[in-house]
Amino acid sequence: MADVNCHSEMKGFHSEKVTLSNKQQAEMRKRRNAGRTRLENGLNEAKRPKPKEIRSQGSYQMRTMVQDDDNDYDIDDGAYFAFADLKDDADTALTPLAARQRVCDALTWDGRLKQEATVKRNCVRQVYAAGYHIDIPVYRVVTTKDENDNLVDQYELASGDEWICSDARAVTRWFNNLVGELNSGESDGSQMRRVTKLTKKFARRANWKNKIASGICITKLVVDHFAAISNRDDRALRETWKAISAKLQSSTKITHPVLDNMLALEGDKEVTFFRDCLNNAIKTLEALDSSDCTRKQAQEAWNDVFDTDFFTSVPDGSGDDGGEALAIKVTSGGTARRNDGGGRFG
Fold it and tell me: CA–CA distance from 59 to each of 42, 66, 74, 259, 296 (Å)?
């Protein structure tokens, strides 16, 4: 099998077209902080208690957010209130809807924003004219005792008409701990994060992103099926995709990484759509398996997969590997994996 090494091009694509620049990251922090200030000012104006803490979560905190041509960025910023602070004037605990409405009112109290915040099933959403939005899930902190009579905090999310046990920070810890574990071992934790972001970028074509699997579903699939291949992000990505495809051919169920429930059920339409898109990409990349595949053909295949012209724009002999990665090599097709059960996590 001829193996056109596109690691250099893939690293360049990740750097220039996928990961957020320092400027973009600074803008994200500014937007997040402005949202926090608005919420606290609104609660002060209404003479309501402020959250015990506000914590970033999701792709922002896991550092897996990817560039979007439409500036359609979703910043998750959870507001955690003490149980006693989510009560009405009659000292009655707020319903989940009332709790979200209180946060929504705090964000809209001065009427200065062009688009008012809205109450969603699992959060309050503030959309900004630039295209991005901040989602604020509302939590209450319930203090209980464990089996050893120690005080412990539990977190309940205002979801629909129910308070449900949930803490998105646990998902962030799950992902970041795996990255740290990989970085301390033989495999490359940074590569897993890159493969996650590259897969999310693949899924966020303008005409796909509203009907494809969610970011957390994609992240869970990558983590479960990640195939680490040192100094070969192109092969690691492709082998990971093949493993994900095989899994989704068998079942579209996806388990939650930290809770005893499901992210997606059998037959989930968004996951099925992602599977079909992934299968088409894998088929396109079969061109790389031809014994006479040229560098240009390999680059064109990756262009097609990511709907870009980036890969053919990279000059031959350039890259962070000094040009060595631009040679055609014959490999056995072996895949490096962690030795903890076939490279599977979770």
Answer: 27, 9, 8, 18, 34
- Helices 269-284, 295-306: axis angle to 10 degrees equals 170
Beta-carbon-side half-sphere exposure of residue 329 (alpha carbons within 13 Å): 12
Beta strands in 107-242 (DSSP E): 118-119, 124-127, 133-136, 138-145, 151-159, 162-165
Integer Cα distance of 276 and 297 in angstroms: 23
| Residue 14 near residue 196, CB atoms below 8 Å | no
Whether the CB-CB separation of 71 and 130 falls below 8 Å is answered with yes
Instruction: Give me the sign of the Cα torsion angle 277, 195, 305, 66.
Output: positive
Strand partners, 119: 124
Low-confidence residues of the chain: pLDDT under 70: 1-2, 184-188, 316-346
Q: Which residues pair with 307 in a beta bridge?
A: none
Q: How many CB atoms lie within 10 A of CB 155?
A: 19
Contact 217, 254 (CB under 8 A): yes
Residue 56, beta-bridge partner list: 77
Write down the pLDDT at residue 233. Answer: 96
**Which DSSP symbol is given to 129?**
T
